[in-house]
Amino acid sequence: KAPKAIVIYPSPPDTASIQFLTKITYSTDLAKKQNWFKKYLLGEEVAMPISKPYGIAIKKGKIYICDMQVQGLEIIDLEKGGFEYFIPSGKGQLKQPLNCAVDDKGYLYVTDIKRLEIVVFDDKGNYVNSFGEKEKFKPTDVFIYDNKIWVANLTGQKIHVYSKDSTNNLLYSIPDTSYGDWDYLYQPTNLCVNNEKVCVSDFGDFRMKLFTHDGKFLDTLGSNG
């Protein structure tokens, strides 16, 4: 059997920075092929699809995928080869989950752009609470860092920073700026926070914008096109 061709980007002679390894479209992409005896006893394994994925989070060997079509998440256990749907009901019911984050305790935070809230579940998948702002609030991404919850607000043109406790109080918002300024956020969609910067993708300005944790503007990356 011929070995699979290595797919990298960019192609030589440029230095490769990304290598394609595999893809997961159905639950059966993870499982080992059923032998005839197991198939006879249990029947043909049903392939569960990933339907309309957007945001993902990776924590402790698991991939959490927000799927707007199923109104929940797919959770993939890379170590055990597991695949399951997480579709909560009751107070935790999701309407249009877009992005998610998982903290060190295994708590799951989901931004729901139809509920207009961040919905929180514990490490067992139980609903804990939900929170957000009452006006001009459409949360598109969430990130956990420095014992805080960072949320991109599309319609409020801000990044909100909440306390990571049972109150989820709003601590502050960034940036403090005006329409037309370089650091103004027109449509903040996704964000990443590390020990130095807050990096925000501004869909309405075709740029990535970089800030300090307290909102001081640092730089932009990219442009229209």
Describe the structure.
- The model has no long low-confidence stretch (mean pLDDT 93).
- The strands form 5 sheets. The chain has a 4-stranded antiparallel β-sheet with strand order 3-4-5-6, with no helix packed on it. The protein has a 4-stranded antiparallel β-sheet with strand order 7-8-9-10, with no helix packed on it. It has a 4-stranded antiparallel β-sheet with strand order 11-12-13-14, with no helix packed on it.
- It starts with 6 loop residues before the first strand and ends with a strand.
- β3 (53-59) and β4 (62-67) form a beta hairpin.
- It has one helix spanning 36-42, and strands at residues 7-9, 18-20, 53-59, 62-67, 72-77, 82-86, 97-102, 108-112, 117-121, 127-131, 139-145, 148-153, 158-163, 170-174, 188-193, 198-202, 207-211, 217-221.
- With 225 residues, it is mainly β.
- The protein has 1 helix and 18 strands.
Mean pLDDT: 93
Radius of gyration: 20 Å
Structural class designation: mainly beta
Poorly predicted ranges: none
Number of helices: 1
Described by its quaternary structure, the protein is: single chain
Query: Strand fraction band?
Result: 35-45%
- Helix proportion: under 10%
Strand order of the largest sheet: 3-4-5-6
Element pattern in H and E? EEHEEEEEEEEEEEEEEEE
Shape: globular
- The tally of beta strands, per DSSP, is 18
Largest sheet: 4 strands, antiparallel
End-to-end distance, in Å? 42 Å
